[in-house]
UniProtKB/TrEMBL annotation, chains A, B:
The keyword Nucleotide-binding does not apply. Residues 214-313 form the Peptidase M20 dimerisation domain. NCBIfam families: hydantase. CDD domains: M20_bAS. This is Zn-dependent hydrolase. Belongs to the peptidase M20 family. Gene3D superfamilies: 3.30.70.360, Zn peptidases (3.40.630.10). The keyword Hydrolase applies. Keywords: Hydrolase. It comes from Rhizobium puerariae. It comes from the Bacteria. GO terms for molecular function: hydrolase activity. PANTHER family: ALLANTOATE AMIDOHYDROLASE (PTHR32494:SF5), ALLANTOATE DEIMINASE-RELATED (PTHR32494). InterPro entries: Amidase_Cbmase, Bact_exopeptidase_dim_dom, Peptidase_M20, Peptidase_M20_dimer.
Amino acid sequence: MAGRASISPERLWSRLMELGRDGALPGKGVNRQALSAEDILAWRRIIAWGSEAGLKPATDAAGNLFLTLDGKFPHLSPVVAGSHVDSQPTGGLFDGAFGTLAALEAVTAIAEAGLAPERPVTVVAWMNEEGSRFAPGMMGSELFAGKRTMAEVMAVRDAAGVSVAEALKAVHEAFPELERRPLGFPVHGYIEPHIEQADVLERAGAVIGVVSGIQGKKTYEITITGREAHAGTEPMERRQDALQAFARMALHMQQDMAVDDVVKFTIGRLEVEPNAPSVVPARVVFRIDLRHPENGMLDRLGLRIEQIVAEEASPCDFQVRRLVDAPSNGFDEGLQSAIRSSAAEHGYKTLDLLSAAGHDARQMAPLAPSAMIFIPCRGGISHHPDEWAEPAHVAAGATVLLDLLLEQAGLSPKQGDA
Amino acid sequence: MAGRASISPERLWSRLMELGRDGALPGKGVNRQALSAEDILAWRRIIAWGSEAGLKPATDAAGNLFLTLDGKFPHLSPVVAGSHVDSQPTGGLFDGAFGTLAALEAVTAIAEAGLAPERPVTVVAWMNEEGSRFAPGMMGSELFAGKRTMAEVMAVRDAAGVSVAEALKAVHEAFPELERRPLGFPVHGYIEPHIEQADVLERAGAVIGVVSGIQGKKTYEITITGREAHAGTEPMERRQDALQAFARMALHMQQDMAVDDVVKFTIGRLEVEPNAPSVVPARVVFRIDLRHPENGMLDRLGLRIEQIVAEEASPCDFQVRRLVDAPSNGFDEGLQSAIRSSAAEHGYKTLDLLSAAGHDARQMAPLAPSAMIFIPCRGGISHHPDEWAEPAHVAAGATVLLDLLLEQAGLSPKQGDA
């Protein structure tokens, strides 16, 4: 029966553009923060599209959104595919949205073809992958995988003081009819399509990236405590200037982190107190994002970061909070082969590569055979309004995903209900 | 007749403590931003105290507050004394408030003694000296002195987007009965008492600082424009990281500004965009506050700052906005002598010194003979909730001010209506 289902490239593309209206920035790009009003609008759109195809919407206590096509054997664990729909404050139209809507398109294609999969097939949009409003991110998938506790996650507050619990309550109240699934149900397999967010595929002229794994990541919150003083009177040698201590740390880290060409070191967020033009800064709080594919090196660099904070803080005090500590992980070999086979069948050039960015698939990998399908993004630009993927690549990613879902859900003569 | 008037140290001290309730921070200190609700409460208190002593309250188009004791010859230009009542976001009880309330106490003493000065004597609280809500500061005195235009100042907005015009309208509407004086009337002399905001007096064991002048000051707003990118994927060598460019500038400036032990160099305010943990910063806007008593050196250091911005920005773009450019100024020699004589008469040890901090008196000096009377502040700590002045020093400052006001207003046989 497999093979009769086929995706609609036009519908998928127009839905990607439409979803971009929820949180649209002036000009281009989106700002669709997790559990925001814009996020609710995006849910509404996606639930409506799923319902047209007969998919049943549901949520869970973590605020994940599910859309399920029933299988012949409802007791079997579902095949799950998707990504997220929240964005960075100045995000693009594809990060997260592509994976979610490609999964919706593939499952819609199965339903429209009148195929009856043996297993349920579920589209997912994980809650707060980006972590820009509520940090750190990947909250929905980490809660699903039991890597963090509800109590811990629900207490996190955004810059305005709103907690995850409060924001999630508002989202759930906006959808009172939505079925509630238990948190962390069994999954047969997980596949996440995503834009690459780098330009390795583009440079190689490849259309489909077969993702071997995700590079490890550590994040830190560093607090530097100095002493407020009058900018016009306090002698320089007596100052405890928290912002100058930050500058020393930032430069020293930037130098010491340059160990090879795969390390990624970023200070993306920084707050100064009291942040007044003529007051010596008393407090600086900043975030470090460190990534490396080799776990040994990642650990050594993380240690070095903590040493540099201690070396450069004086005469200020400091505090180091470790937030994320995620080692590199590998994806399922069988699914990687299946991606290569599908791509070859359709004539898409593939490339094996490691994901430099973190994804919800990292959390699913220990739970079930998992994979990621990458498509190129122009110039490697992501987390930016200029983020862009070619319509042909978007269609290619969804086409390969459809093949994998058919096989995983028991619709292919090759794999059946393996 | 002079000499019969005398200040009440207890009343002055208790009013200083009471004024600290308007904008009181938890624990201690105040946050009383210019033209805020807290500022309105402070005005209300001061107007009430002035009215008890028969002083007439008035304001002007710049939002300055005046309290005037009539003179025998109302057509003569008034002697003016005071300071400001706005504070830094984490300010203390004395910066500005001491000068304003010491002036109120001295004029109240003249009124209570039944003395009839020849000239009017006016207490002033200048609008927005600190410049922390609306930057740069000294708005009220600069408008009074004609150094800036109303159009320019009224258009300045705070971080919440409120303009000076809007905030000032709210203040004036809170006091509909207040007489309006023309902006920038003639002044016979100006005397501003203030805490030193450094510890030169304290270390010398002096009680009264005879201020010879105010050190020059330049402020800049620097904008660094880089490019947003994904923290996990963008290769380090391709980044245009605005925050790393800032760190290079900050450190380079800190090194090059260390030319001697009187220079003051501060980066007090900094904003990062988009300020998200996993996005390479695209934009940093920061403020520089540079002070030096020698105008030639101040100009050279200012030039060096602009050079360093240009040297360290690459691969980011940059923009330099010059905000304040105030050369050093000297105060009236005759008034300095009068401060020394008064202090000697009362047995207060004096010290001649230069003000490292800027004050409204800088704007008044070109308009009329002007002076500043400093008193010690503990440990030199200012712009901080720990800011503190001894009750005896507060009383000493007001006592010397009273002597000067008596002379200036034509109540002393020595100076009369000179």
